[in-house]
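Progress narrative, Year 2. Work on DNA polymerase III subunit delta from Novosphingobium ginsenosidimutans advanced from sequence curation to structure prediction during this period.
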Amino acid sequence: MRLRGHDAAWAEWRAALGSERMHHAWILAGPRGLGKGLFARAAAAELVAEPGLPQPSADRHPDILIPEHPPENKDEEKKRADGQEDVRRKRSIPIDEIRTVQHRLTTRPTLGSRRAVIIDPADDLEKGAVNALLKSLEEPPVGTFFLLVAHRPGRLLPTIRSRCRMLRFAPLGDADVEAVLRDAAPEADPAAREAAVAAAQGAPGVALEFLDQDLGAILKAMQAILARGDDDFALRGILAGEIGARPDRDRMQAVVELARAVVAADLANAPRPRQARIITAHAELVRLAGQLPTYNFDPGLAAMEIGGLLASAAMPREAA
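Result:
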């Protein structure tokens, strides 16, 4: 995905980069899908660049360290060793990945005087990995800078947040999201692109997931529930059918994010008595989105819960 927008974030970053005292640790904060990871890589490339020296891409640069989500099991590890790309990875970043980075930090940078560590996202760090990272943030090696991508910065430890400078990212305009989709998916149906832009609420990464997951029919089912309610559970049955009997975690995550976006978009035009129910449903969808990566949900029950939250926010023919 091509990085677009975020002029304010770039201005703040480059002002700090040109100052005499560049802060050693940054939190790149904002909703998922805004391009914070791409920004981190581009910003790190600017940070470590040395005049007159050719610079590899951020993902291959010896002075830009990015801990991975490791392969899910030994079979997936073998696939990675064989050079395959479709490797299934763990949902979390374990302490071993942070310790590997810390071992690298005991040596000097390879191409210049600076080194960058990108944690993308910091939300996925295991508890032990967080504690290990904290030690590096407390005593950073000279010339080492940390960029922590955070979708929910409030969930990071206060001791982590207190050692970092916050760089906030706002949603993009619809025109920028549309431009990203045209670049990344020129073959997509224009109507599908339009629906993806509407559902993404300024997050091009979410819009691309929408296209990848083919969520158009799911969007229509959600909008129907939100508009009419679902007294007889029929629309919830349609929604569950469109989601599928055995959706993987990525699809369920995209579905929940879509439901959250649909509810949020309905808030602005809702009458005041209904706004409280919309806000409550949105908060529950945010909670569900946070639980999906680690909890084992029955897909059918999860689909019915999502449908129930949408129905609770609908026009008052069904109570919350």
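The two ends are 39 Å apart (CA to CA). The chain has a mean pLDDT of 90.
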